[in-house]
Amino acid sequence: MKRLLIVEDDRDLSRGLCLALKDQKIQTVPCFDLKSAREQLACDETELVLLDINLPDGSGLDLLHEIKTRDNPIPVILLTANDTEMDVVMGLEHGADDYITKPFSLAILRARLKAQLRHGADHTSKIFASSPYRFDFENMKFFSKGSVVELSKTEQRLLRLLVENRGATISRSVLLDRIWTDGAEFVDENALSVTIKRLRDKLDASQYIKTVYGLGYVWVEKADD
Questions:
Q1: Which residue segments constitute the domains of the chain, with CATH numbers given?
Q2: Is the C-alpha dihedral spanning 94, 96, 98, 104 positive or negative?
Q3: Beta-carbon-side half-sphere exposure of residue 218 (alpha carbons within 13 Å)
Q4: C-alpha distances in angstroms, 218 versus 24, 142, 167, 184, 209?
Q5: Backbone φ/ψ region at 136: left (φ over 0), alpha (ψ -120 to 50), beta
Q6: What is the pLDDT of residues 31-60, one digit of tens each?
Q7: Tens digit of pLDDT for each residue in 87-98?
Q8: What is the pTM of this model?
């Protein structure tokens, strides 16, 4: 059974989420503040966190940072009324795996939760190794020709999407939706072009990260000679 931690200080909403999301495969555990959430996470049994940003004893972003910088980070979906572009960017830059704003559809929330749980099960190996690269997404360590490459959170998310779907073209709209927001209207499309260029330059990967004009981008299986 998957253990889902719901960190939400609105007790009525928390109770409703626990009832709506609990099934034979998911155990829901409610927490109403950062203190209780940290106590539950210390048990090291949680597999997914649904996290509000505004909590009575601090910001959920602080807890998000703690989760994503520990040895075994787990998926985190932010659930918040903060829907400005800056809030979205801050959440994803802190490493959130998804971002849902209130009010929301329970059907969509269930689908997002199942996608994250399935993603965790399907990608047990977080390391991509293919000369001249080694990308350790679990520990956020990236190497090109044996040298360490520093990547931003956004660049890491983009790289992961490309290499996990290598050989397949990913459209610009899908990349925008998956990397920055749950709605592409929050970000200028030029941001994707800029991030692609930065990633190519840092990894010296112009032979691997290809533009498919009019469609999107692809990580090719084998670089051109």
A1: 2-122 (3.40.50.2300), 127-219 (1.10.10.10)
A2: negative
A3: 12
A4: 38, 19, 6, 19, 6
A5: beta
A6: 999 999 999 988 767 889 999 988 999 999
A7: 667 777 778 888
A8: 0.55
